[in-house]
């Protein structure tokens, strides 16, 4: 797990921090400062072999929906979690390679 912390300065001088969890992906974050209640810029899009990045979510179980960087204000400490979808083409390719390997082994070792 890679975690990057984004500190935020609140309207009255208190700090609000947002951590980004790549959830198995690789990414480099940047540090930003905004006033309490302001929106934040989206962290660098992470990458993960065999997966498509679906967005940043506040809930690791994906029950709250994708974070809206254009409209949602940051008002408390939170963690943004990367969400992934398995690339079906990568899965199909892996299954086909495995199937060919098994068939070749079966032909050579009856």
Describe, in plain words, how this protein is organized in 3D.
This protein has 110 residues and is an alpha+beta fold. It has one domain: Listeria-Bacteroides repeat domain (Immunoglobulin-like, Sandwich). It is built from one helix and four strands, in the order ββββα. It has one helix at 88-108; strands spanning 3-9, 15-21, 51-57, 78-86. The chain has a four-stranded mixed beta sheet. The chain is elongated, with a radius of gyration of 20 Å. The model is unreliable at 7-11 (pLDDT under 50).
Q: How does the helix and strand content classify structurally?
A: alpha+beta
Low-confidence stretches: 7-11
> How are the strands of the largest sheet arranged?
1-2-4-3
The total domain count is 1
Summarize the main sheet: 4 strands, mixed
Name some characteristics of this structure.
single chain, four-stranded mixed beta sheet, 19% helix, elongated, Immunoglobulin-like, alpha+beta, 4 strands, 110 residues
Describe what is shown at a glance.
With 110 residues, this protein is of the alpha+beta class. The chain is built from one helix and four strands, in the order ββββα.
Task: Give the helices and strands, then pairings.
Blueprint (H helix, E strand, L loop, with lengths): L2 E7 L5 E7 L29 E7 L20 E9 L1 H21 L2
Parallel strand pairs: 2-4
Antiparallel strand pairs: 1-2, 3-4
């Amino acid at each position: 797990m890679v975690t990057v912390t984004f500190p935020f300065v609140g309207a009255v001088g208190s700090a609000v921090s947002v951590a980004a969890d790549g959830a198995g992906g690789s990414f480099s974050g940047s540090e930003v400062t905004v006033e309490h209640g302001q929106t934040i810029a989206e962290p660098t899009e992470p990458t993960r072999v065999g997966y498509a990045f679906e967005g940043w979510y506040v809930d690791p179980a994906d029950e709250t929906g994708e974070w809206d960087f254009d409209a949602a204000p940051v008002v408390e400490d939170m963690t943004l979690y990367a969400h992934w979808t398995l690339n079906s083409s990568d899965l199909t390719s892996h299954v086909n390679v495995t199937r060919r390997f098994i068939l070749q082994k079966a032909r050579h070792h009856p």
